Amino acid sequence: MKKKYLRAKYKKLRLNLTTETIEDLSLQIANQLLTLPIWDFSFYHLFLSIAEQKEVDTEPILHILQGKDKNVVLPKTDAPTNELINYLLTDTTVIKKNRWNIPEPQDGIIIEANKIEVVFVPLLAFDTSGHRVGYGKGFYDKFFATCQPDVLKVGLSFFEAEEKIEDTYQSDIPLDYCVTPKNSYSFRKS
To answer: What residues are paired with 184 via a beta bridge?
Structure first.
């Protein structure tokens, strides 16, 4: 299926989820993450969920990261350039929603993308090859291009993989892993 169709399909599926279902599925996703070999790093990039879009709630993941004493890096969108500015989460970080209702840090200690080792990636859909469909603005594609080549990209999805996204581009950067409430997918080449 093509990205446009998948984007519409999964937005609709997510809108049908109740708050209780989102909480339960998000906790299952966080528990699935614990089975991945991603916990020996220091800098973890975590998006904060857009509640209005019924995204995976990343609060349980945040608690895991804090419990493991990891450095949590939060993105802030720079709309004119479609780029992410990344800030270290500290006790004094002020979080506010932007015009798209994305909770994001207002300022703080900027962390360069090449220091980030693991990125939790928001998405609408993904396929069995690790390609993903986002909202179509390209923020994460641009961000990945500035990261180290071996940065681990971990998608989070309420839904299982599609067989194939038909209109991927050679410049699309696939995920290394994707976690759903029931499964962990690995796309890493050995």
So the answer is: 179
- Give the CATH number, domain containing residue 102: 3.40.50.10420
pLDDT tens across the length of the chain (190 residues): 899 999 999 999 999 999 999 999 999 999 999 999 999 999 999 999 999 999 999 999 999 999 999 999 999 998 888 899 999 999 999 999 998 899 999 999 999 999 999 999 999 999 999 999 998 788 898 999 999 999 999 999 999 999 999 988 777 889 999 999 999 999 987 5
Q: Coil, strand, or helix at residue 133?
A: strand
- The pair of structure tokens assigned to 20 is 């209780």
Q: Judge whether 178 and 157 are in contact, CB under 8 Å.
A: yes
Whole-angstrom CA distances from 133 to 21, 26, 166 are 22, 19, 11
Q: State how many domains the chain has.
A: 1
Residues spanned by the domain of 153: 3-186
List helix spans (H) across the chain: 3-15, 19-33, 59-67, 139-146
